[in-house]
């Protein structure tokens, strides 16, 4: 397997491992510690986002001095050990300490995203970003299914071992790549390793394009994640069906659509045509999808999920391609950590806001509020993205190559890709 394929495999293990307990923390805390408060569960999930937001910039700074692949060997090992240690935590506070420390170490795997993009030519960025987006979508679904299976067959806290297994699998892949010499040169995120790169820290003016993009991504993530916490409950109330299987399938529709969109985009590229750049149009299509989901009719909800999934995928790819086009290889990790911070902040604010909105106005309100927010995003994107670009790649979604070159044949200097992976 190529280095690119192994990094995608690592990402799959990471996403599945992360998602195993996410849908089941209420059941986990109730079964293990007798804590049934929704506020407690919400606060815990919020703190997971907070520690990831705060620690990823630290890992990005460390990666300037230590090869990211070597760094992951240590951090994923620590994450696995801390995960297992949390299994025997006798009290809730100790579980919080151990498990949040585990997520602090686990968050370092996000560096694989900018790491991989340094090894890909710019014309391949759109396809690679789209592929990773699909991996995140289906990894989240697979993780939730795995967590449900483990909880049903064994018990809630056994999921912790499944999470630790994902961490140790990532560590094993890193060790194999290092020992097999699949990494033919060290790939630090240091300025001095790139001829012609700035040797000093960039000024605020130089970082302004990335900060503008980060603000747009914060607003976009806030809107699209506002509908997520209560989507299954909303479908069950509209359809009258209490079954978890159907509601889970409806929830997963955007992930299925993302896979189709990735395939269609590649066929367009293979036909020699340039992928169209319709940022405003996709934001408005996403808005229509949200409004249709707010209609209390199952058919309208399904159609809305399909439109939402298509537009969501195209927007995420466009925004991530723009981020790497505005950045430089030496700054990928630092800029990605900034973007990731703002994205997590958007998701965090959406999680808190969704509960308050539903409590005050009902299950339909998040769809309409999110739709209004996306219209505003479409308007402000004209200003936020209207700036001198470092490369033409930010002005249009680039044309992916029909066949990607092996990552190991590209030097970081000559090559310029998650989710954030986002899943919805």
Question: Top keywords for this entry?
Answer:
Growth Hormone, Chain: A, 16 helices, mainly alpha, 2 domains, disordered C terminus, 424 residues
CATH architecture of the largest domain: Up-down Bundle
CATH H-tier superfamily of the largest domain = MFS general substrate transporter like domains
Unreliable parts: 190-200, 387-424
Q: Which CATH class of the largest domain is shown? A: Mainly Alpha
The total domain count is 2
Major sheet description: none
- Which of globular, elongated, flat, extended, rod-shaped describes the shape? globular
CA(first)-CA(last) distance: 30 Å
Number of strands: 0
Helix content: 55-70%
Q: Nearest-angstrom radius of gyration?
A: 21 Å
Helix-strand topology string:
HHHHHHHHHHHHHHHH
Descriptive account of the structure:
This protein is an all-alpha fold and 424 residues long. The chain has 2 domains: 1-188, Up-down Bundle (Growth Hormone, Chain: A), CATH 1.20.1250; 203-389 and 418-424, MFS general substrate transporter like domains (Growth Hormone, Chain: A), CATH 1.20.1250. It has 16 helices and no strands. Helix 7 (125-153) runs antiparallel to helix 12. The radius of gyration is 21 Å and the shape is globular.
